[in-house]
Write a structure and sequence with these properties.
Length: 364
């Protein structure tokens, strides 16, 4: 697909290869089954009901989401088992929305403080279904989450607030990096953190039923042990940073932005019509440039404006013609998807369908 884009597209547009998408979903589902893990994919990467359906049919237990509004969007699409993998701070508006959501889906929510646990208990009191929580612990990413040894303190506050304490979760985000050993270390770090958190809960008489971790970069480095649920997200599409890190191959890239060459101002430079409002502005330290061009793998997107992508070619490489439509794989696929209204679904260069990005802009 990455070199076979459908003809007649109005660019820029996000195009998904249906075969690669399905293969990526099946491969991760099989890896989880083989390893003895439950799979709860993170839907913030695709935000699309049709893709969620494919993941669930492949055996996913439910979905993870990043925000309450993402949860609402997937609940409206018929998903009935959701984990908001984020330490929500329930203000008055979110409290009302949480109660409504808890009435219609099996709902889990992340928590990483005593104060938030108490507010969450107040927010969902009286819901038709019990809301369960997982305590977030930090395994080395230094983002949200309490030290694993403090998990019991947060869990006790949640239990006292009337919430069911399901277990603990973490995110091994420090596994993002060039060095494969970083991914290995991050996988071991999450195992240690969740094991310690589990012991902290058991000391309070709370037996953890779920210890949730996992990410796309640490895929393949999981070991049977304390972790029993995985939440990878980017794997459905993959992206330029996963490619640069060695987490996937070119044949595993399922999404690209179709973009038109609008200018060839110099022999070694051309400009595409997919800028930061299509590709996103994420540029990680281990990625060269602002995206990957499969038809020009040695080229570098050196500058990105809102509606321009400036591409430099190596010396002697022929430039594309004006009007040529090229595929650009974004650095970090989650941002472009959140900027798009729809995904063009294709197979071998033929457009099959268009899927709405149902949770687009669902940031609250």
């Amino acid at each position: 697909m990455l070199e076979q884009l459908p003809e007649g597209l109005v660019t820029p547009a996000l195009v998904v290869d249906a075969d690669v998408l399905d293969r990526n979903i099946a491969r991760m589902a099989e890896a989880a089954r083989t390893g003895g893990f439950a799979l709860r994919p993170h839907a913030k990467s695709h935000k699309c009901a049709e893709i969620a359906g494919r993941q669930l049919r492949a055996g996913a237990r439910g979905l993870s989401v990043a925000t309450l509004s993402e949860a609402e969007a997937f609940a409206a699409a018929g998903v009935d088992d959701l984990f908001i993998a984020y330490p929500l701070w329930p203000d008055e508006s979110r409290a009302r929305r949480l109660r409504r959501l808890a009435d219609v889906v099996a709902l889990r929510v992340g928590v990483d403080s005593v104060e938030a646990a108490r507010r969450l208990g107040d927010a969902v009191r009286g819901s038709d279904r019990a809301v369960e929580v997982l305590v977030e612990v930090d395994c080395g990413t230094a983002r949200t989450g309490v030290p694993a040894a403090d998990a019991g303190r947060v869990a006790r506050a949640a239990s006292d607030a009337g919430l069911g304490v399901l277990g603990a979760f973490t995110f091994p985000g420090h596994g993002y990096g060039h060095d494969p050993e970083a991914r290995e270390r991050a996988a071991r770090d999450e195992e240690r953190a969740l094991s310690e958190a589990a012991e902290a809960l058991r000391e309070l008489g709370l037996e953890p039923r779920v210890l949730s971790g996992g990410s796309t970069p640490t895929a393949g480095r999981w070991r049977p042990g304390p972790v029993d649920e995985l939440r990878p997200g980017v794997y459905v599409f993959n992206d330029a940073q996963q490619l640069a890190m060695g987490c996937c191959g070119v044949d595993d890239l399922a999404l690209a932005a179709a973009s038109t060459v609008i200018s060839v101002p110099a022999p070694d430079r051309f400009v595409l019509d997919a800028g930061s409002k299509v590709l996103g502005a994420d540029r990680s330290a281990w990625v060269t440039g602002h995206g990957y061009l499969p038809q020009y793998p040695e080229a570098t997107i050196t500058a990105l404006w809102e509606h321009h992508a400036v591409v430099h070619l190596p010396e002697g490489a022929p430039a594309p013609r004006l009007g040529a439509v090229l595929a650009v794989v974004p650095n970090h696929v989650c941002q472009p998807v959140n900027l798009a209204d729809e995904l063009v679904i294709a197979r071998q260069g033929v457009e099959l369908d268009r899927w709405r990005v149902a949770a687009r802009g669902a940031n609250t």
